[in-house]
Design a protein that fits this description.
The protein is mainly alpha-helical and about 425 residues long. The chain is built from 15 helices and 2 strands. Among the domains are: about 140 residues; about 120 residues, no CATH class. Strands 1-2 form a two-stranded antiparallel sheet.
Amino acid sequence: MRDLGRGLKVGRANTNRTSPLLVPLIFWVAGTVAIMAGLWRLFVVRRLFLNGDVGAGRVIAAVHLFTLGGFTMVMMGALYQLVPVLLNTEPVRPRLATIQWAVYASGVVTFVVGMNDASTGAIGVGGIGLLLGIGFFVANVGGRFRLRKTFNITGWFFGSAIGYLAITLVLGGLLSVRYTSGAPSFGHELAIHLTVALGGWFGLLVMGTSYRLWAMFGRKHREPKQWRLTWLLVNLAVVALVAGDLTSWWWATLAGWLSQFAAFVTYVADIAAAGLFDSRTMRDAALRTVWPGTVFLAMWEVLGSLALFGHQPRLWIPALLCYGLGWVGMSFLGFVQKIVPFIIWLHRYAHVHGQGKMPRLDDIWRPDWAYPPMISATLGMVCLVVGLGIKNVAVFTTGIVFEILAWLVLAAAGVRAVGGPHQRPE
């Protein structure tokens, strides 16, 4: 162990239920870089995006920097850390996790470059890399569920989300084959791909993570009461919406949309009971960041309903932006500022607790660091949605700048937290 001064010592990680600190960090660093790259590419193709030309290869490449390179990469890192702890199983071996990261990252880069350059060869190679990388991940983390000793709330959400990720993998592979070979397609394939990926994979995973972290870090430490109903409604929504797309049965689409809205209501009710609107809990700036994220999730409901029932398909673009960068992105912005200091403390200080002055979580990641990214990301999302609504390039570009600043500040705070050393003030 090495002495950091004032009686504080740091030694090796000493826990058999968590991956080494490096494992989630390489995923989170890569994910953050991909999100910033996605924002840059969004700036490059902003005129296409504003004109609604979202089928262009360069726009698809930018979108997948967010979905595949950013949010999926981040969530993979979180699951490597959380699943063994929550299911009380042995963690995935670091070497396997690192190899999976390398394969998946290579696939993302190759696929995005190929899509941007309209190179069918690169798209094919990247697609194979994605298939291998996601398949490897499902095998790594899915094995923890087979070995489970307990299966709790987040186990239900995480297990289902990983299942939807596997389905997303198959659907994405079919889309890649059609794009590169011109093979015949089936109706509504893109809508089904988005439903399974956004509703099943992202939706269930963010909800499950949110439930656990509110119980851990919210002042009330309250477990959700409606989680089974929420889980059931999300799954019902995905199945019904996919059925509606495959059959063109309007009643199935309606049932699916009403189910996902009901899931939104029960989910928000649970996190509100855990402290979302509690004044004492909201003093924590990191948790406060989740509040505007939930507002953007509500905007998804409003815009999506107008697009579906008002027959205004152009509103799906800002609706999906609110869901992805607004809710999923800001949830990560807030929760990562609670998870990172916790796992740093767990790995570096837990085993020497009581042997000198220990830093608190607030000493590792200062609470006031959360305000700049929260404010910048919120302003960025507002400008992006308004810019899309009025088709104003300047406003939309301003939103991209604010978003980039938010993620740069988060990255700088993360480097400071990981680098340390962390000393508890006298």
